[in-house]
Specification:
Layout: H1 10-18, H2 25-35, H3 47-59, E1 64-68, H4 74-82, E2 88-93, H5 96-109, E3 115-119, H6 122-127, E4 135-140, H7 147-155, E5 158-167, H8 183-197, E6 201-206, E7 212-217
Length: 224
């Protein structure tokens, strides 16, 4: 079977990005302000990924969401846009300076009332939640060595058919480079292999931005 993918040139990528229906001036302003931070701005998710996350949040009828790793708030704004007016997004991050940028743009976008930001260890924040807390969708884009911890803590609180999205699962191709053995790369490799063997879920990895894995929690009668 021939390779079923299209290699993106800069021009083709620009074509891809412009062909989305989302035209949010607040998101555009947030991109510009984040870019002014310099190289660290690479941590912001891609615009097509944000549009995809908004659509996905709406499509599954999500009302309760959680995000680990908020940075300047772009992904949170995208998810919040997909939630109903009475929806709730819990954001976990450790950096007050970067998340303050997000707070301002959430206010401008009119979604701040949907978002609760907790600063501190993401693992500790998740573990402090009630056992019966329930999410419809989760997004993880934080420190890679803790990805598995985030997975377990969110999965136990995820409703059947709920989704968890993991960012950076291709890690700029380093997941295939045997010479790369740093902790973050090892953690991503291990999680990628663990998820596809985990009978509690089904998953697909997509070549969106730096790789995006979508995990669906199976209902109890689906597990074999």
């Amino acid at each position: 079977m021939p390779d079923k993918f299209t290699t993106l040139s800069s021009d083709l990528y620009e074509y891809l990005v412009t062909h989305r229906s989302e035209r949010d001036p607040v998101l555009a302003a947030l991109i510009k302000e984040t870019e002014a931070l310099g190289p660290v701005s690479m941590m912001q998710i891609a615009p097509e990924q944000g549009a995809f996350m908004t659509i996905l949040t709406r499509a599954i009828g999500a009302r309760s969401a959680v995000e680990v790793g908020t940075f300047t708030g772009y992904s949170a704004l995208c998810v919040a846009r997909g939630l109903p007016d009475d929806g709730h997004l819990l954001c976990c991050d450790v950096n007050e300076e970067w998340t303050s940028i997000g707070r301002r743009h959430w206010e401008k976008a009119g979604v701040a009332k949907k978002i609760e930001l907790r600063l501190g260890s993401g693992v500790d924040t998740l573990r402090s939640l009630p056992a019966d807390a329930q999410f419809d969708i989760g997004f993880v884009d934080a420190d890679k060595p803790n990805y598995h911890n985030y997975y377990e803590e969110i999965l136990r609180r995820l409703r059947p058919n709920g989704l968890i999205l993991f960012d950076n699962v291709l890690w700029m191709g380093q997941v295939l480079d045997a010479a790369t053995t740093d902790e973050s790369t090892r953690a991503l490799r291990e999680l990628n292999e663990f998820i596809i063997a985990d009978r509690r879920v089904e998953a697909v990895m997509l070549p969106v931005a730096d790789g995006l894995t979508i995990v669906r929690k199976r209902a109890a009668d689906e597990r074999v």
